[in-house]
Design brief:
globular; 13% strand; four-stranded parallel sheet; single chain; alpha/beta; 2 domains; 38% helix
Length: 392
Amino acid sequence: MIRKTRLILREEYSSFESLLELARNHEYTEFWICQPEEHAPFHCLTGLSHEDVLKEYNHLADLMEANNNELNWMFGSTHWDPDMSQKIADCGGGFSGDISNIAAINASKINVHHYSARFASYTVNYNMPEDNNISKSILFSSLMRGAWEHRCMLIDKFFKYNLLDKGIVTWQYLADEVNFNWKHWTPERLILDMKVNQTDTSMNIFTNVKDESPINISVYPKEIDNVLLDVVVESSLVSSFITEKTFKALFNGMPFVVFGRVNQNAILRDRMGFKLYDNIISYDFDSVFDLETRAEMLCQELLKLEDQDYNQLWEQTRDIARFNINRFFDILLNLDLMPDRFAEIARGDIDFDFVGKHTGYENYTASAYPQYAEELKNLRQKSIDKTYQPLQ
């Protein structure tokens, strides 16, 4: 008998109670809750203790089990390691609520899955390979939105070492809008013209300054054409969550370093099979737990590149860029690298109801996947071709 599966996206529930109601009243033998974020759904259970969060998760799982149903929850992280997260918190980084939720859902009866390439398909949906064969005159870019602790720390260090003059950096918040002990910089809004290759305003995600024109964070602005290296400041200090910020660098063959969770770059290399650009910059900072020390070390690496020939360094990265582009598309095209249920859906082996939009998951239905795979193959070739273009 073919399983009847319901795919539930985060947008389909507004509270934990609504999830409980779904569990009580349904016709499905299996639920998959597809959540793109890095953590357990802490927005549903804000303010509860670890023990109460665990109790609620198990209540939900028990409701499903009572009807011989199965509950699967999928997140956009590569994996969870609560012990590692706690060590990060002990060194001054991360949020205790996130760590508590990760630990609680790990200990619950819910079947947890991780789809680390979740944002890769999202990146493809909103991108075309960039014309990055422009002469490189700017050391780095670092496009930041939310004022998370590690982002505050890094931009404060950028100012300390005069690196804001060497790169393209975005920032939205003034000092009184952020709870951070600024040591070197008095925050101001740093805004680009953001001349993106995108005219569809439905894809705009946030505004560059409140009440001003919107920009799309999923694509590189034209100002990045002259940049050597993208300093990707990821979304989380606690879990290995890889978003469009990193995937758009991989997709476009852009040299990068990631500043986020401890060992974030190593996870890209060791768990996901990408190569790092360690032929031009050291990633030694990546394994350091102390946040301030890690930011200092990254800035020192950028300073080492300051007076080098950026065009020559760029040319030295092209083999790695091509490898990473191929790996990026391998992950999207290889069904064996996806969660099992989604591979079954793409092959037409399972009966399911799909609810949601703008997620990337809809590309993996049996009717949509063949065309999507063909589009990916064409995009792969376009991305590879651009890495062979000489600098102008």
